[in-house]
Amino acid sequence: MPPIGRRTALKLIAGSVAGSMAWSAAPWARAAMAPRSTDQAAGDAVLSLAFDKRMHTRVSRNGKPLTGWQPSEALLLADTEIVDFALADQQAHVLDDPRHGSGKQVVFTGRSRDGVEKQVAVSSFDQQPGLALLQVRYRNIGSAPLAVTGWRNSAYQLDEAPGGFWSFSGATHTDRRDWVQPMDAGFDQRNTLSMDSSDYGGGTPVANIWRRDVGLAVGHVEPVPRPLDMPVKRTAKGAAIAIESPQAVTLAPGQELVTERTLLAVHEGDFYAPLQQYQVFMRGEGIEGPRPPDSAFAPIWCAWGYERDFSVEQIFATLPKAKELGFEWAVLDDGWQTNEGDWKIDLRKFPRGDADMRAFTAEVRRHGMRPRLWLAPLAADPGSDVLHDHVDMLLLDKEGAFQTVTWWNALTQCPAYQPTIDFYVELTRKAIADWGFEGIKLDGQHLNAVAPCFNPAHKHASPQDSVVGLAKFWDAIYRAAHDANPDAVVELCPCGTAFAFHNLPATDQFPSSDPLSSWQVRSKGKSIKALIGDRSSYAGDHVELSDNRDDFASSVGIGAVISSKFTWPKDTDHPSVPLPPGGFVLTDEREALWRRWVGLYNTHMLPKGEYLGTLYDIGFDKPEAHAIAKDGARYYTFYAPRWDGKVELRGLPAGRWAVRDLFNDTDLGEVDGGTVARLPARFERFLMLQATPAGTRA
Asked: Is the dihedral of CA 672, 677, 681, 685 positive or negative?
């Protein structure tokens, strides 16, 4: 029986009952087969999966059972589930993968009384201890068709423990809820990777539950998006997690269904470790973020404080103040265009059209800043010329209805239709090469994922072409921008969504995308740093969206790029919604605070440091803490409404370390490294510390 192959969309495969397993043999698997195992287990020293005679499994960590025996892999029918399979065989294979290194795979085979054969392939790699890949094949060996409603992999429950549970979800929810949440009583999330509504969907295909001592993560490792679900919920005895497919198929006699490649990981601490493992594995699959230019780490001022009804004079009047404070980017936001879809210049603001746009970017550069342009691709407003002249670009569902982008009341265009791609590639080239912008901000919740497209004009091989094609669309935009200017910055801001990992290779910068709180700024930041790694340019978005509208600490302390939409010397006279108390105008008090934080940011430039995400558990450790290593120093930032007690400086190398409160510019003494150093601390909101080897500070 050949070992598991590299599959991306295995579903129904016709074949004889007596035929060999339909998975293609992996070219990196050695032909020699290891002797049959007697312990009926797979995995490695960290994560072990044991199979009983019914093919139920038990997870062990470091040799100790973590779960009970559970029907972890199941075939779902309309009114029941097939969970019991009599284990009949297991075979082991040695893996030698040029992308993931050496490892092993064990394939377990069994049959159910319902006339279904099941094979579970469990693969583990030496370079990724604690991570297992699973792929399951179900074959109808009966004489009648079998109506299947889906399948489930890695369904486990962790038992209750003191302190309860936390959860990370990589799936998008229309209500823009937190990605990281405590699992209170009744907690239950389906976590679909399909569309949650017409313009919200997709995400990073990983979900995680953890308690104080241990956690489990599930997901899939396919190189393209898949419409799977990752349900997590509180149970009477603990917390449960799984990964499922809700797609219905009918298996004729002799036909088989093969699941996507799914992952199971066991870990200590919060979600950072399994997300980092996923990132490393997917890098081997060829998906990783680009190395962004240095300008992707420069502070950002955005004109959105003046909203759509801005005047060019307002922006020009604010540029000297933005530059004086230390901001480097100036973003021309929504309102420069006639509508979403045509992307024609609004001649009321730029009377000379292209010439005025070139003059705008020249004026920004004259102030020593970099111009960036806001765009919302794949949206066409009612009444726009493109909607009238190119209605063929629209994404249609199977009933022929269009999909809406709710924020603009616009219609979604198909990213896998070549005329759509060509239209936005040309727009990007014009913005960079002709008008002279040095970056583009791609904005809108609809940019994260799209629904399957059934538009007959597109002649798609499959309705899923639009779903898979979105990442290719972004790649075309990215290449157009960088062909026009190799140092251009492409920012993708899929408002309020959980970032779609498969869009990562075409993105220089991810912002926190309309955070609802400072907690979202920090928890999203930790997630993105795990998923992008040392290529990370994560921006905290406008500080005015944070708690108290001034929480720079939640960006600076986690190594996020800072951003502001302040107005100066006065607010807009025509706000679309009532301004918050005090508006966005840069008062003297705010100016002093902004100046201090921009100065700290530019001096220490923490986004270029190494984020030490495994040192602290964002759910259980109090106060919340984040750590960064840079240029021989260690930076620790703690967050709490109020704190009066000790804080722990974890991960300090051996030796004496001098500690300084950076924001208050105060020396706090010295501590010993090599063990967990503790300091008494009293603060409100945040405490930002720098530790340097004693005697080295000038």
From this structure: positive
Mean pLDDT of 648-670: 97
User: 91 in helix, strand or coil?
Assistant: strand
Task: Report pLDDT digits (tens) over 340-383.
Answer: 999 999 999 999 999 999 999 999 999 999 999 999 999 999 99
Please, where are the H alpha helices in 539-620? 553-556, 588-604
Q: How many whole angstroms separate alpha carbon 50 and alpha carbon 60?
A: 8
Q: From CA 648, how far away is CA 497, in angstroms rounded?
A: 33
Which helix or strand (DSSP H or E) is residue 240 part of?
Answer: strand 238-245
Measure the CA–CA gap between 269 and 650, rounded to whole angstroms: 14
692: left (phi over 0), alpha (psi -120 to 50) or beta: beta
Per-residue pLDDT tens over the stretch 424-436: 999 999 999 999 9
* Residue 48 contacts residue 60 (beta carbons within 8 Å): yes
Write the pLDDT tens digit of every residue in 517-542.
Answer: 999 999 999 999 999 987 779 999 99
**Distance of alpha carbon 215 from alpha carbon 180, whole angstroms:** 14
What is the C-alpha separation between 144 and 262, in angstroms, rounded? 29
Strand partners for 180: 168
Q: By C-alpha distance, which of 530, 522, 600 is closest to 560?
A: 522
Cβ atoms of residues 627 and 615 within 8 Å = yes
pLDDT digits (tens, 9 = 90+) for 374-420: 999 999 999 999 999 999 999 999 999 999 998 888 999 999 999 99
Read off the pLDDT of residues 12-32 as tens digits, 9 standing for 90 and up. 333 322 222 334 334 334 333
Picking from 212, 200, 173, 205, the residue whose alpha carbon sits closest to that of residue 189 is 173
How far is 698 from 677, CA to CA, in rounded Å?
23
Using an 8 Å Cβ cutoff, are 67 and 58 in contact?
yes
pLDDT band at 39 (very low <50, low <70, confident <90, very high): low
If phi > 0 it is left, if psi is from -120 to 50 it is alpha, else beta; for residue 513 that is left
Please state, as a whole number, how many other Cβ atoms lie within 10 Å of the Cβ of residue 603: 10
Helix or strand holding residue 146 (H, E):
strand 146-148
What are the pLDDT digits (tens) for 406-419? 888 899 999 999 99
Instruction: HSE, CB side, 13 Å, CA atoms: give it for residue 302.
Output: 25
* Chain segment 431-457, per-residue pLDDT in tens: 999 999 999 999 999 999 999 999 999
Q: What are phi and psi of 472, to 5 degrees?
A: -70, -35
Complete DSSP assignment for 471-486: HHHHHHHHHHHHHH-T
**Mean pLDDT computed over every residue of the chain:** 93
Give yes or no for a contact between 403 and 199, defined as CB atoms under 8 angstroms apart: yes
Judge whether 613 and 628 are in contact, CB under 8 Å.
Answer: no
DSSP 70: B
Cβ–Cβ < 8 Å for 76, 150: yes
Q: What is the DSSP string of 149-198?
A: -EEEEEEEEEEP-TT--EEEEEE--TT---SEEE--TT-EE--BSSEEET
Cα 206 from Cα 209, distance rounded (Å)? 10
**Banded pLDDT at 7 (limits 50, 70, 90):** very low
Give Cα 550 distance to the centre of its chain.
Answer: 25
Distance CA 464, CA 225 (A): 9
